[in-house]
Structure prediction request, 279 residues.
Amino acid sequence: MAKNMAPDVWTAMSDATNKNNVVKYAMREEHFSLSERYFGRMYSWVVTYCGRNPDYDSQLAVFDLEFDPVDYISLSVEELIKVLGKSPKVIRVLTANKLPIMMPTGMAPDNVKLKSVSEKERGRRADVIRSDRKFQARVGEALSQRFVGQERSPHVELQIYDGFVSWEDQGVLEEFHQAPLAKRLSLLETLSDPRLRELGHRLLFFDCPGQLSTHQVSEMNDWLKARLLNEGSGLPWTTIPAALSEVEDLLAGENKGNEGFLGEVRKFLEARPKEMGLV
Prediction:
C-alpha cells in the first residue's frame, strides 16, 4: 500500500536499508531532510554532508543548515569535538547502517527547522561546507577522537564508546547467539573485547548458569548482590535501597490515593533480595 500511495517515499526508505546507498546519497545530494524520533516525537532538519569517521566508515557527519557555517568552518578538531557534544546540535551524527530516515529536501516534513532560511541561502551554506574538504577532514577526525581521553568508566554499560567492536568479534557474536548452550562459554573465551566477554558471562549467568563453573557462579552472585544492594550514591542505576528510599519519600509526601500502591511496591522491594537468594 505504501509503495503505491507514496512511491517516492518508498524508494527513499528502501535505499536506506543499504549502507552503501546511504553513504552515496548523503555525499551526493546538495542537501536533504534527516528525521529522527525522540521520546515519541519526530524531529526533522535539512542537512548537508560534512565529514566521515576515518575509523568507522558507517559513521557520517551532517551539518544542520539552520546554522551559518561561517561560524564553524575554521574551527579546529578540538573545537569541533566540543560542537559535537553541544545542544542544539549543529553537526549531527548519521550512522549509515541504522536505517536513517532521509528524504529529498522537497519532501521534508512541515515541521522541518529551516523556515527562516531562504532556498538561496540554504544553497550557499551547503556550498560553503561541501567545497571545503579540509573542514570535512577535520569533522571526520573530530568524530574519531570525540571520546578519546575520557576517563574509563568501571561500568561496562558506560564503556560502549571506548572503542569499536572488531569484525572478528562481531563474527563470534553472531555465532554465539546461534550456538547451542553448551558451546557458548567456549565462544566467549575467544572474544578479544573484555566488554563483550563480561556481558556474555552475564547472559549465561541469567539464562543458563549450569554452563558456568562453580567459581564463576559464585563471582556472578557476588556481582549481583553488590549491584542490587549497594547503598552508595551516584551509581548510574537504581539499587533496591535507593528504590526503597524513593518509595519512603513518596509516602511521606502528598500522594493521597497512592498509599496502597506504594505500600505494595515497598513490600515487593523488601522481599526481593531474599527471593533472589541475595541475603
Observations:
- The chain has a mean pLDDT of 88.
- The radius of gyration is 25 Å.
- The chain has two domains: 2-145, 156-275.
